[in-house]
Design brief:
The protein is mostly loops. It contains 3 helices and 6 strands.
């Protein structure tokens, strides 16, 4: 057999040595590789690391990637939230998350302070009513806004020689 043929049996076409074609060469062990002081880049590692190889607790600082959902326990363990304080969400926080809350899911009472003064006589309780004056008994100006809907309900009378002025760039509807 020629020397070229002998090399062809020992090397791959890329020039790597075929380990199965070497006689009397022991299979490397973890200890023999560590003794050489060779670092293997993580990019060269493939496959799955057995759970037994991980310590029971991993430091978060050692993790640099996302853990796949199938690697997490199901269900996740309960987390004690007793130390969470001062984390009440703001309207902006809720809106930024894209959370929509249907009005049908709202319960409770809205404090009068949350309404503009023109709606302070509104009751949102069951059987509540909205009231507006039916008589103008003094010179009055109602200013409308193009960014808000305004309405009054029922007949409205202007007493004596008083004037009721409707100002602004919006619309006031009397229903």
């Amino acid at each position: 057999m020629s020397k070229a043929r002998d090399l062809g049996n020992l090397l791959t076409t890329d020039g790597d040595v075929k380990s199965d074609s070497l006689d009397n060469v022991p299979t490397p062990t973890k200890a023999s590789i560590e003794a050489l002081g060779i670092d293997v880049p993580a990019a060269k590692l493939t496959g799955t690391i057995a759970d037994a190889r991980f310590p029971s607790r991993l430091s978060q600082s050692k993790l640099s990637q996302t853990i796949a959902g199938d690697r997490l326990p199901d269900p996740l363990p309960a987390i004690d939230g007793s130390n969470l304080t001062g984390v009440a969400p703001t309207k902006a926080t809720i809106e930024a998350l894209g959370i929509e809350l249907p009005a049908a899911n709202l319960t409770g009472t809205v404090a009068n302070a949350r309404f503009p003064t023109t709606l302070s006589n509104v009751s949102l309780a069951s059987g509540g009513v909205y009231e507006n004056l039916n008589t103008i008994s003094g010179n009055t100006t109602t200013t409308t806004s193009s960014t808000k809907n305004m309405f009054l309900l029922g007949q409205i009378s202007v007493n004596d020689t008083y004037t009721w002025t409707i100002a602004g760039d919006g619309v006031l509807q009397i229903i």
